[in-house]
User: What shape does this take?
Amino acid sequence: MDTVTIPKAQYDKLVTARDLLNALYAVGVDNWDGYTEARNEIEGLVTEETPREKTQ
Assistant: This one.
């Protein structure tokens, strides 16, 4: 299993963002106008502008 070390403050923000995303999904955010466009934009940012680098 790969591990990543990040500051606790960043970890806390990620946990909060995850909790918010889970809450949005629970109320049906995936059915809202603009959802698909937002997903496509985020996926484009990860794959085109900021490719994930594998760290060792």
In short: The chain has one domain: 8-49. Residues 8-49 form one domain. The first helix runs from residue 8 to 26. DSSP finds two helices and no strands in the chain.
